[in-house]
Amino acid sequence: RYAYVNGRFVHHDDAAVHIEDRGYQFADGVYEVIPVHDRRLIDEGPHLDRLEYSLNELRIGLPMSRRALEMLARELIRRNAVTYGFIYMQVTRGVAPRDHKFPKKTPAPALTMTTRQLPKPSAEMEEGYSVVSAPDMRWKRPDIKSVSLLPNILAKQKAAEAGCQEAWLVDENGKVTEGSATNAWIVTKDNKVVTRRADNSILSGITRLSLLKVMEREGYELEVRPFSLEEAHDAREAFLTSSTNFVTPITRIDGRAVGNGHPGILTMKLRQAYIEQVVHGEGG
Ligand code: PMP
How far apart are the first and last CA of the chain? Predict the structure, then answer.
């Protein structure tokens, strides 16, 4: 298995970065996870758009042209024979003697890529996920896909210790912002799909964006607004979206059954439509 590290393909076991890389010192960097399905990248364009957005917000340069990034990603997927899974890319501000402010002489941004092979996802989801709620303790710019993920890690660990697959983060107003690594959705008793606006308070998920397009095409009723944890507890259905989970039903929140405790009907329709139109289709 290979990794890409600052200009070279190296064996994954030998892949290493400098200890004064600002990503290592300060988490001064960003990342992307692009899903691979049947050897193809899903929604590559929007993922690279978001990478550029994150870099721009932090005033880190794009390490190379988009075209070159795309070629490298494809080459790594080919070398590692990835069929299903994802490619991970990380860009940091680069290597410089440790000092909080940006280095005077701008270092070359550091670029690394790795891949992961995962089991082939299925259209059916027999069991839904369970989630626990946790306070959203993140900084005020989760729209930047920064590698600084301590609050996300702690929330996900809380979920794991509670036997759950994800944590839903709740802001100081009692509203769910998003999951530790997924976007959050509910379906109301009158079959309206609810998700909050992608402002600075959440990461604008690429799966979320593509699903919104699918829903518009199919004429689903949508309400873009924050929802509270109580509303989620009482919702008919709940689900999450992310690049590796697609659309995944949630059947328990804080130990309480959502709806009848089984994956929601509307949720499963959305999962299938997403898989047909985005995963198997041209991609969003
Ligand atoms: N929110 C957070 C905090 C995430 O880390 C992720 C995963 N990248 C998502 C939402 C879902 O985003 P996407 O659909 O682009 O994977």
Answer: 30
